[in-house]
Amino acid sequence: MPKPHGGKLTNRILKGENRKKAIKTATSLEKVEISKTIATDTENIAKGTFSPLQGFMNQEELENVLNHKRLLNDLPWTIPIVLDVPQEKAKNLREGDDLALYFQNKPLALMHLEQKYKFNKEEFAKKTFGTLDTAHPGVTKTRQMGNILLAGKIGLINEPKGPYDRYKLSPMETRVLFKEKDWRTIVGFQTRNPPHLGHEYVQKTALTFVDGVFINPVIGKKKKGDFEDEVILKAYNVLIENYYLKDRAVMSILPFEMRYAGPREAIFHAIIRKNFGCTHFIVGRDHAGIGNYYGPYEAQEIFEEFPDLDIAPLFFKSFFYCKKCGGVTNEKACPHSNEEHIIFSGTKIRTIFSKGEMPPKELMRTEVSQVIAEHPNPFVK
Amino acid sequence: MNQETKKKPKQKKFTTVSIPTPLFKKVEERIKGTGFTSVSSYVTYVLREIVAEEEEETEEPFTKEDEERVKARLRALGYID
Fold first, then answer.
1. Which of A93, A196, A261, A319 is least surrounded by Cβ atoms within 10 Å, i.e. has the fewest?
2. Residue B39: inside a domain, yes or no?
3. Which residues of B touch A60 (CB under 8 A)?
């Protein structure tokens, strides 16, 4: 099993007496109400999904991540993990004090405020997303952030509850699971869509070389028009049940808000799966991208900068259905012309469902299509 | 200076390492036409690769009790028999 990023799995979950004490203390501390994104990040820090982070980044750490794509201890790290508050709120907070982080009016975590600092939103957006175009959701979100960032270690008091918790496993749990299954090599697959045949072929091609596949859909805030979380989970359940060996595939969710930071986010996704215990990670075309902000294979090329990532990326070109080959193949294997190819396009599949139709079986398994077609609201509105 | 802009003294992020001049020149030749912009960036890359490979294995990040508790949850959720 690979080591967690930085060598040790972070555990900042308060338990027993410590938790009871923290719940009591929280009511008397300065209260900071946080967003769903920050609440999810807090949970991921506490459970070790973001190991070795133990809290939100301070100024020096943030600058290092933006400028060098590394933490201060030289470990690869590409996405800022920060907690923002409005300037007005920050005035009441003192460095050195403990704070109570509240989510939906309930105490979620305690935080020791190590530092509060101003940050340059333009620099943050430009370096993270590679653009200042406000049509990019990450850029818009950065502009809407509070002007002050809070840094410090956290301790989780209450786990955020969600409708899909039965599919939620922590890195400690996946590591025990992989050990129980006697998997030594595990490939992680990141997704935010129900599976079409192209996804299945990528996973199964990777599976040929490893012991197991870890399918890890991102659950959380998405863009308008994306598939609903419930649809993705049901679709994967039916696919695994009908087309995968039970002992070779595992699905659990990742509560996380996509940043759509393309290449930087691909590295971050790999780090997260390394913490879950994966030895390999699938990076496809335009991984974590949006619009035309990143080159189609930029998210693969960035891995060249990180010889010390300690999780092996598996790069795939796009798969397609070839009418002449009579099956799913890719440009490295198929000699036929483009006219013979049916491309697995997410947009095309969404359009088909929006019209109340079902995609052909060359694009998507019938069982998967049925799950989507039968759902009253398959898309985020 | 107000509290928000106060900075801690910064740690030095780069330092100098001496290598033999002929080796430096060989590396300089080797990186021509590659993505490496300097001998320093090449040497950093190679050292990071070597250091990552040689890092010692750490102990399991969880105790036996943790493991049993986790197994019980995994069983209850149907992940293991």
1. A93
2. yes
3. 8, 10-11
